[in-house]
Amino acid sequence: MKIRNFMMAGMAAALLVYAPAEAQQAVSPPNAAIPEMPKTTTRTGKRVNRIIDMWLKNQPVYYAQISGGGYEEGKRLAATKADYITYEMEHGPMDFKELREFMRGLVEVGTRTGHKTVPVIVTLPISGTADAVRANAWMIQQTLAQGVHGILLCNAESPEAARAMIEAARYPFAPRVEGLAQGTRGNGSQSYPATVWGVSQQEYMRIADPWPMNPDGEFLFGLKIENPRADANVETSVRVPGISFAEWGPGDHGFFILGRPGTYPAAQGGENSPVMQLVRSRVLAATKAAGVKFLNACSEANVEQQIKDGTMICTGGDSPAADKGRAFTKRTDPW
What we know:
The chain is of the alpha/beta class and about 325 residues long. The protein has 15 helices and 8 strands.
């Protein structure tokens, strides 16, 4: 009898371990204090995340990028004219201590705009499949615990992968959202980022949620649609609750579609070739249909056309291209 009970218990445990991820998601217990999602923002004044301030004024934003770096780099980049900083850890070194020090440097210097820091969006070395994102949810949670303002998921291949990122980034008590399971972010993750954002821990836990899904949220989560598998799912991926922007990743797309750089005729045009432009057009159309923002590289020669196309995030935050773009949209806020 004991042996039979032991075997049955073991089988039950195995079924739980190997059940599909959706089946393993815990439902909210009856006494969980989970509020309904607010219909409109309760925030007043400046947002923590300056990108949101700009988008609420229908202004495109421009970013600078750094691959790794700590306290001194944070102090230096605090003076950037860029609207936000991409902290690149997809191919750069993944060092959460350095990222924390970078945020500390930003806080120490402050900003010319009155925000606590320049916003920081991080890229991570996670292959953008659902299984990979679930297995590496710890990277998402470690990143957010350093006080950053969002994550851009690279090679985001499916809506399931996008959904897994958002669920890993949310607290279990975050407002209910149809299509999302209960969040998994844990206690202790709020202490350091609250100091970076300049809010209490209680307030941090309330606003550490994706915008615009949560009107009071301050996080921005994006998708890099940068391979043919991702292309096949882009229309559904960008509609996952909590996703606020996407890009088409011409560099990686070129690897998949055109081959190794230097092995195809220059006449094919690289990212300007017809086959590559079809990819861009599909991703751009998907973002417009879903109501999320589109990211594209911008140069001084094409920034105005990019904005006319609907680009709301441009590269080159400290470049003449950004100055030209800001003038084109008649931005009045300081930069």
